[in-house]
Amino acid sequence: MSDILEVTISHLATQGDGAARLPDGHTVFVADTLPGEQVSIRLQPNGRGQLVNILSASPHRTTPSCPLFEQCGGCTLQYMDRPALLAWKTDLVRHALEKAGFAMPASISSVQVQPHSRRRADLAVRRTEEGIVIGLHAKGSQTVTDMTSCAVLHPTIMASLPALRTTLRSLNAVHKMADLQINLLDSGLDILLSTDSPLIATDRQRLTALAEDLNIPRISWQRLKSSAPYETAVQRAPVFQTIAGHTLTPPPGAFLQATAQSEQAIQQSVLDALPARLGKRASLIELYAGCGTLTLPLGERCQVQAYEGYEPAVAALKAVGKSRVTPVCRDLNRQPIMGKDLGKADVVVLDPPHAGAKLQMRQIALGKPDYVVYVSCNPAALSNDASQLASAGYRLETVSVIDQFLWSAETEAVCAFKRESSRRSRNALSH
Length: 431
Description:
The structure is a single chain. By secondary structure, the chain is an alpha/beta fold. The protein has three domains: 4-56, CATH 2.40.50.140; 82-114 and 256-430, Vaccinia Virus protein VP39 (Rossmann fold, 3-Layer(aba) Sandwich), CATH 3.40.50.150; 120-243, CATH 2.40.50.1070. 24% of the residues lie in helices and 31% in strands. The chain has nine helices and 22 strands. It has helices at residues 82-100, 155-170, 201-214, 260-273, 295-298, 311-320, 339-342, 359-367, 379-391; strands spanning 4-12, 18-21, 27-30, 38-43, 49-56, 109-112, 120-128, 131-137, 144-146, 177-185, 188-195, 218-223, 231-235, 241-243, 246-248, 283-287, 303-308, 325-329, 347-350, 371-376, 394-403, 412-419. The strands form four sheets. An eight-stranded mixed β-sheet has the order 6-21-22-20-19-16-17-18, sandwiched between helices. The chain is flat and about 65 Å long. Mean pLDDT is 94; it is low at 423-428.
């Protein structure tokens, strides 16, 4: 196993590792490589290749911008320039849809966000002999790398980490570990802290002082691995976020699209995917609505029945009080909307979690609404789900790729599907 081989990387696999063909015909995967590169590798007992040397570098190879590259598990592809990264992610989506059975449209639109723009962070906290470590797990490890630098997070989030380290070190509630969810809202930082020990009175005082120092409107708390709901530890000021001109109060740890730029790109792609003659009386069913990232702009176009399984998110959306939006709390993976109801809608829009739409997708295929707009954050799940639409007689109209997860293997896509033969006229579209 110590023999060194020279191979040529043919392509990148779905997780970003380079793939090369060995002399015996087997494929070996090698991290930190790019297509077209000639490299020397050492075969490992697990069948993977360990990069020894780059003999001929790709023109798309670049120097990683973050000093924590290879220590932090967040940006595994920083050695690839951004145009090549976007092209690869576009190819991932194209391949997923072709595998599902669709012919691709003539062109695919694409958008890539800027560095230092991510407004959401889900960070691990560990107490060490040296102090508090806040960051991400190193690739393939339980070790947390202290996030002293980051090329993707918004500067406001990064600027808060030193004070957070100091405060968390003083908390009795952080015995060994904690989780830290940070959202940068229009009202400022919104923090959800999950700790392995109870929050005591002095902890609350220290969190209040932190909120005062950093001008944080709200800090919420919950016990790690507990089914108990979160509670408000500090509330100094109103918490709000504006979506499509509507102001709402997201629950702690609420899901937001990764950046403001990508949120706008996804919203616009979904709106552009709607039938051109869709009228304000037309009916649209939205699945996995969250706090209303798509619901509220869709409500400007037509009547929207928005389904979401997380009750606090539904409550936030209901509080907006938009007349053409009806939010409904329902766990779609356990209790999907049935095909007979979906078939009555003029359009179905869905933005499922990473694993895909599961049982709900089967009902969409059975109901056969004329238009389906699918927002995906996982090409593999998109391929599985979209294959049911292909079998049900849909064609792929448009595809938009939004790279909002820079230098990672994750990508977002908005795909518009239309039934090849409509079973009935849609008079409501023009009303």
